[in-house]
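Researcher: Batch entry, complex prediction.
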Amino acid sequence: MTKTRYIIFLSFVALATGLLCLQLLRLQIIEQDDAVEVARGNALRTNRIIPARGAIYDRHGTLLVHNEPTYIVTLTPRYFNPDRASLLAKLLGVEDSVVIARLEEAKKWSSFRPSPSFPNVTFEHYSRILENIFRLPGVGQKVSQKRRYLTNTRAAHALGYISEITREELNSNDRYTSEALYRQGDILGKTGVERGYETYLRGIPGSARRIVNVHGLEIRSYRDGQEDVPPRNVYDIHLALDAGVQALAESLLVNKRGAVVALDPADGSIIALVSAPDFHPNIFVQHMDSDAWHELNTSAFKPLYNRATMNRMPPGSTWKPFMALMALSEGLVSESGPESTVYCPGYHPLGRGQFFRCLGVHGHQDVINAIRNSCNTFFFEMARRMDLVAFKQYANAFGFGVTAPMDLFEQTPGLIPDSAYFDARYPAWGVGTTMNLGIGQGDMGVTPLQLARYAAAIGNGGTLHAPHLVAYLENVITGERLESPGISEPIRVPIAADYFDIVREGMRQVMVHGSGQWSQIPGIPTGGKTGTAQAPGNMRDHSVFIMFAPYVNPRIAVAVQCENAGSGSICAAPIASLLAERYLKGALPNSNSVRLRRQRAENAVSFPLLDSADQE
Amino acid sequence: MRRWYKYLDPVTLLLWLLLTGVGLTAIYSATHGEAQEFLLESVQFNFERQSMWLGICCGAMIVILLTPLRLLVQLTPWIYTATIVLLLVALLVGREVSGARSWVVIGPFGFQSSELAKIGAVLAIAMTLSVRMPSQVLPKGAILLAVTLLLLPAALIILQNDTGTALVFVALIPVMLFWGGLSLSAIALLASPVIVAYLTILHLPTAIGFALLLTFAFYFGTRSLGWTLSAGAVAGSTIGLSSFALYQVLHPHQVARILSFANPEAVEYRSGVGFHLLQSKAAIGSGGLFGQGFMQGNQTQGRYIPEQSTDFIFSVIGEEWGLAGSLVVLFLFAGLIIRLIWIASQINHPYGSLVAAGTAGIILIHVCINVGMVLGLLPVIGIPLPFLSYGGSALLTISVLIALALNMYARRAEFSIYYI
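Model: Structure tokens for the complex:
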């Protein structure tokens, strides 16, 4: 063979090898970064580690809500042996067909990845599966967490419920969800504290990087987990809620439509917040089918409707202390002297005895007497004398007609009418139209929360606190304590303290001599005011009551609204006083007084129970 | 006189050993580790099966080394005929594996008839072309016979639906004729369509420019109008035919397969043919200078590269052993090929010399096409990388060819006795 051909052949080999080497150099050194990016995008999966949701405690440190493990049995169709379907069914205590059906479902999702085919398996079934897992290829297990409610306090509206995030929530720019922390299938607080404190309860998910293969299966951790981030900033929530008072309120509101709000007048913290009828948050723990959800949403009982902040009803006579304070402050009536009384002949003269009647013939009434006797004539007269602009200003100063500074619940501002309102509604309105406002009737609406705030402000001598359900937060990992965030500064109602003393005295006398005398707490002087708000049509009156206790340095203020349950003293008053007594004494004593009040409260019912007549 | 085995070339044997070792390591990495259980059962035990095949190869090599030259020469036509018959058998009653009907199954063993046909072809061409007396011009009849003997198995393999392997036979034509003594101008003319077609796929203007350049080169090289016109005609018709084929004849998916290598990131190829290349390039690229280490490649261990224990095995080397490892493997191949060419140059008899050169050519063609494909230089053509890719028949074929070359090198002195 000629030397030339030998050299040509060798050169060709060298040329080819050289070309391949150059391309290797280009791919592995020059374009290395691009390739690494593609390879990372492929093989690197970042898993979120969702921390266990924060627990919720009550005012006294009683654990209300925490998490418990929920056992999940998974199926990986690619490795599951269909011959073992009946063994699996036997161990799980289900029909064979169920296993086959779940297997088909799982296949639709992925053949290679474990599907959570059997969620919420009991521990007994779960351990039976574990014992036999070697006989069940393709069957796996996973432990997850679900909410567990520990006490007999439902506190459904206060705590709220959690549920899977919806597509709309996922897409919205809501502040809770915008940080891209949420994915499809995540759990989100939907109402109450669970929603309002979602960011604290959920914390910041951690991450763990895993190498995955082409089927999406994790094969090991990336760089031995050096880049993994543990979850953080999960907070336990300590509520101001008193679980005992809350539970008592819930039990007393059985068979009623209504709401209770109890506040601490010293700081505005919510001791109890009940809306009835309600639901047990537990029903959201299990997977809820659409029928159940539909039922919950459309039930005539409206269990999801939070009456405590959304129910707008006339306050009835519980409005009279407000009128008295406004009248005194505006000089419509004086504390003493000839200008301090109004004569009650059993009606207000303006309506010729037809329209503005009083419940009795009270004679000369000063402010204290008028409150004690709940004298309509006196307060009709105050309404006649008042300026509607000032009325609205004072009402707003007490938190009526506006929403409370609280980000927890959906609230209605209620209705405090002004001249524009009357112009629009009754073009020919006059003083006769507005006089009903003096006794808390007519075109006005207040919520139980507003009433409770108002009662607390009277009790503490004129300080309006921001109501809040959360006392403090505690970081689960670091133990760091956060005072309840977002509480605005208390506001002074612009009325002299002296006038508060007068009105408080009137309310004390209500509880001793007036309509509240059957709802006294033995041994504890209190201030209160009943209200009987007229319901439209021929419906029974709404029963309303506000109180604060004890009389000096009150520690609790309660507002109760029961729809169509009769007069204030029949239903709302005993409920409020039982709650205050329970709170102040730590437990209800075994006394006749308690038994009698309890009997009255429990005998009272909203009639009809189903009709939910919003005041519109 | 020294015994024949004293003349066994230790360099070739060592390179063979090293390359099979590298191959087993790469196959192990591609089929073991965390993701092994997720592999198909047919792939899961490739390492074990390849080890077993290696044993068979050793046996076959020993048998071939012990075979006297005379017998080999006498058997050559029969070996060729046997491989053609095997191709026909596979075509008629063979088993189809991933689209190619090239498998013949005997008992527990299955082998690829198209692989074994390479042995028959190399031997037969060597015999055909060795009729030439030293320093004589190749007779036209021998050339035609040689081309026919190569095109026959190529045609059968195309019928088996394995274009890649058929391409090896076609590519072997210029190599064998070159070593057989065909004039260099004719070789250049024969080889030019490959380059022109490649350029047509990549960039048409460049292809036209190259065709013109080639024609001028022929004119100045040969000063013969006939050669120049032939060169122009061959180059021109190659451009015309390949363009026509690309845009008129071939199905879109075939065009995609051919074109995608130039731009695998393009959206239209991404999920199909481009996926192979993208993953393979990503794997090789992320290997960097020294690689991610044995069993540490994310792409390899995540089984992202399709066919990674067979056709795309080089990406495993690239990712886990980096540029350093890839260069070592390429140099081992280059070393083996060069050594075989050197052996070919040492055997004076054209038969032995052509067998050694043909073996070198086959390895060279495989390495160029396979590594070129894995590195994204060539279209995706499914042929294995010798020694590295899993495949018993391929390993056996290359080993047998090497054993034949070694045999003829060791017994090169005897050729004068067995004059053909």
